[in-house]
Design a protein that fits this description.
Layout lengths: L1 H18 L13 H24 L6 H17 L4 H28 L12 H20 L1 H4 L4 H15 L4 H10 L7
Helix pairs in contact: 1-5, 2-4, 2-5, 2-7, 2-8, 3-4, 3-5, 4-8
């Protein structure tokens, strides 16, 4: 039964990744576009996680989950021939930005309890989406390794961030969160 549930959750995550609206590509010639878009979608999953934690009274910070994610991602990085320290930095920033999203939602709901979502999915659903985005991001890091370590990385990162922010209609807070999540991309 547990294996079937895990397979179903994985399938839901894969379908969510495939059916999520893609960032507009018409003016995005940045090779970092897909990586930044996956980072933005991963941040957006924080809204569902925040709703679940609000409704269950769970803490926003989950150091055990964070360590599990970072360890797995470092292992996956080694398996793909990537620098695990670099990958650790990238995902540490991403996780911190996602926690900021959760804190932001908590603050909003504390000030406006009527805005709290009435229903939240099971925690396994957004976690499966997050795990899926982690895989996409790690793959993109491998594919874009040279661009991430090139002198023009900062300009490409800025262009991709602007394009994804427009395409996903990110508000100022989410633009800041996306910038924080991606701040170490060019520091390789």
């Amino acid at each position: 039964m547990r294996e079937h549930l895990a397979a179903l959750i994985g399938l839901i995550g894969a379908v969510a990744l495939l059916t999520a609206p893609a960032a507009a590509r018409a003016d995005d010639t940045s090779p970092l576009g897909e990586l930044i878009d996956a980072a933005a979608q991963r941040l957006a999953a924080g809204d569902d996680v925040a709703a679940i934690k609000w409704q269950t009274g769970a803490a926003i910070e989950d150091p055990v989950r964070v360590q599990q994610q970072l360890s797995k991602l470092a292992d996956d990085a080694v398996g793909q021939g990537l620098d695990p320290g670099y990958v650790h930095r990238i995902f540490t920033d991403q996780i911190a930005a996602t926690e900021a999203v959760e804190h932001y939602r908590f603050a909003q709901w504390k000030l406006d309890p009527a805005a709290v979502p009435a229903v939240a999915p099971d925690l396994a659903v957004p976690r499966a989406r997050i795990d899926g985005f982690n895989r996409v991001m790690l793959t993109q890091i491998g594919l874009r390794w040279q661009q991430l370590h090139a002198p023009e990385c900062a300009a490409e990162l800025d262009r991709a961030t602007r394009t994804v922010s427009r395409a996903r209609q990110l508000d100022e807070f989410y633009r800041q969160a996306l910038s924080a999540a991606t701040r170490s991309y060019c520091a390789g």
